[in-house]
Amino acid sequence: MTFQKLLIGTSMAIGVSAVATVPAQAGTLTSVTIGGTAASDYLVYDSNATNTFTVANNSENVQKVLSGNAASPTGNVELAASSEQAGFDFTKNTTLTGTIGGKTLTLSSLTFDDWFGVGQTTTTYGLNNLANTWFNQVLNSNSTISTLLAASGYTKQTLFNSFLTNGGFQRFSDPNISYVNQDDTSGLISIGLAGHLNATPLITPFLGLPSNLSNLLPPSLQASEIVKYTYDGKTNYLYSFKATDSHLVEQIDRISHSGNYEVTIQGVPPAAVPEPSLMLGLLGVAGVFVTQCKFKKASI
Question: Which of 118, 189, 215, 293 pairs as cysteine with 265 (C-beta 3.0–4.6 A)?
């Protein structure tokens, strides 16, 4: 009997230990597909240790390049890749959809309606829409107001109108998705947006500044492109003004994808699945109890 009790105690300890030592796992986006009203308007960038470079647009490459994380971002998928070209259709979008933690997540490029409101035709500065909210946050987060506006006599409205006229909103509507991961314990979904570690050369042309004022911009301005998401019945927009060094650069232009901007969604924690070690521990406990019952029957 003493030996049997020892076996039971040991098996239960193994089972409890398995529970206590199971680490938090990171789920990834699976079954990824590209869609939207401009489903073919995307580019896939793979990477090596130093560069990103375009590869064929197919499902295998799309899934492969989304395998990174904040510490080591890899390639990316650029949605609405033609946003920088003349004739870009700002009414259409490109989406990336997959499953993470048992739920569907859709990431999308932005359209005119996203920026200015569905059915709206007014693009006036000062309205309550995403365009005004984001643009003011760009100025405030990068401390350009005290330098640029005060020194030049420009107003926020002047800069906004120049940005609008020069296609700045289209340019920031094509997010480059580099990874999508989920913490299995907290449910937090982390999304990597590949962008410029220093966005000053990117933003400056859209502000329409004369050359003698361009040097008033901060030497290292950071701003991500914007991604629209739909998850668990909710739709919203994500962007960031803080980048980390991706240690990568696009091999042709030598400036893109150098920064990683991580944005997050509070997701639903996936249903817990017992670890194999835990199952073995529980089976061990059950086996000992069965054996004990047999011993009791044999002794009657």
Answer: 189
